[in-house]
Amino acid sequence: MERRHRRLGAATVRAIAGLPQADLVGPIPMVDGTPMGLLVPHLAPVVDGNFTATTVVDGNLTATKGELTRGTADAIGLRLRHSDRALHLSLMPEDPLEQVVFDIAEQFRCEALVATSLLGAHANMRTAFDRWTVAAIGNRMHETGVGLLLFTLTHMLRHRLLRIPAEEAIDDIIETTRGNLARIAGHALADLPKLVHDQRAYAQAALAIAEMVAQIAADATDGNGEPPDTVAGDHLLIPDGWDALDAERAATETTAALGLPTSASRYQIYDTTGDRVTSGRALYPDSSLRRLRRRLDEAKADHAVGPARIAQRLQQLFASWRPDGWASGHIDGTLDPQRLSQVVADPLHPAVLRIPWERPRAEVAVTILVDTSGSMKRQRYETAAVLVDTLARAVELAGGTSEVLGFTTASWNGGEARRRWEKAGRPPKPGRLAETLHIVYKPADLTWRQSRLSLAAMLRTDHYREGIDGEALAWAWQRLLERDEQRKLLLLLSDGMPMEASTANANGDDFLADHLLTVASTIRQDRHQTVQLGALSLTPNLDQLEAAIPRCEHADLSSVLSISTYDILARLFH
Question: Could you tell me the pLDDT band of residue 528, with boundaries at 50, 70 and 90?
């Protein structure tokens, strides 16, 4: 029974995370044999079953039997799916109490990203959390200072991010502490829900909250300057072995794999410290973006192909018929219950049947991934921006969801990553030696109108440097997988194969190109066929890019864009 329970829990984690290499060793989640340390009390297994949870009661370490519930497995899977572990560890504070608060906040960010359609996962996690709450009260977690702080903050974060209020009995316990925390950290708590899709920005608010909680605990120290309750010794119900952060941090800082299900293990990343994900609007001041937006609108007018016209053509590509009620008054079909009286009054009247009524719906998400490396400056980036901006608007008008992403590096010639490698004595085959910059010009959850200024950042080339195409494609793919739309299309707009000088010099010219081939192959060979992948090349030589992405076409941007150019989606994804 124990083995079966563990296998089912591990299978659930793998399915939710989308990582075949994920596993559970006891209650500890592992990826590729590395423990994923989690300092999250509400993920502790605390009900009767097979796994062991560790608690400290009155200074004595005790072990209690507990099973890993389905809701806990779902929550762990979401953490592995939505959290960049290397980024999380790079931002992790040093103070033990701040670490716990920071980890709890990140867990609820990941749980907030679960698809609304996964009703079972929502119910499972709610049940698991309720069981933890009962167990925490039974173990008197709320009867000590640090314990009550964390118990209260956990419920506050859950309410803010998951919109699930605490039960009345819990309200009675946390009311006073919640009021005190709200006065001190209320502004940071209010910022969290709108930042859930940006882990780095969210982490800054979470770090502020963690620091405030630690300060509150420090203010309650006794005369010896020691906190009355330590994180390790307060009834936190954190499973033994989950706090394997030091070992994991060392492993992560050495190298990091891409994280795709079939990515080549030889692809390494020397240092992720300088990697960034930002919005287009954050790149430049609004005053500059407003000028760029006017320039982009003028360029669109010059090309004279409106998004409404393109949207009409896209509707045929996107439309799928879905049931939308019934059409009554037919002589064929099934009996219409609303016309039973007519059957009695006039038995010979034929039009008392109904048939299903269907309407075309565009259940499609389109991601356009734009190469914003330095070579794009020579490939009519202005016309490319017009093409992308117009396509994003047309997809929206056709009833679909559009997302526009970009990729480059955060600095030239590797930046700090390369300098650290040189200080380490230039070890051979270090892997990627650059700081990546991934840009969200238009997120899927915002309309084109809301993203107009952010999209205009494509017209300013200060951030156009070098390209790590494989990792960018994997990033765009993972974002698209999180969408609920039935159909998902991913279009890479590029001027050729990836190139980053420091990485190429240290690993060979084919290192990044091989990785792009691996990532593209992984997406195309996905047995679920979740995402359709295509490419639009801005150079006539398609051989290399076509080898990675067979659905590839060339676009000539040297003249005025025509309706044929905008038909690229129909030609690639028909």
Answer: low
Residues in the chain: 574
Most distant CA pair in the chain, distance? 96
Q: Closest Cα partner for 82 from 35, 131, 36?
A: 36
Weakest mean pLDDT among 344-348, 366-370, 399-403, 495-499 = 344-348
The three-point CA angle 445-447-453 to 5° equals 110
DSSP 347-414: TT----EEEEEEEEE--EEEEEEEE-BGGGGGTTHHHHHHHHHHHHHHHHHTT-EEEEEEEEESSGGG
The CA-atom distances, in angstroms, between 275 and each of 254, 268, 436, 452 are 15, 14, 5, 25
Q: What is the sign of the dihedral through the CA atoms of 44, 48, 53 and 59?
A: positive
Alpha-carbon Rg for the chain in angstroms = 27
Do 503 and 434 contact (CB within 8 A), yes or no? yes
Q: Which domains does the chain have, with CATH numbers?
A: 39-69+92-241 (no CATH), 276-314+362-488+498-527+541-573 (3.40.50), 323-356 (no CATH)
Indicate the pLDDT class of residue 287, thresholds 50, 70 and 90. very high
- What is the DSSP annotation of 81-131? HH--HHHHHHH--SSHHHHHHHHHHHHHHHHHTS-TT-HHHHHHHHHHHHH
Cα separation, 365 vs 372, whole angstroms? 22
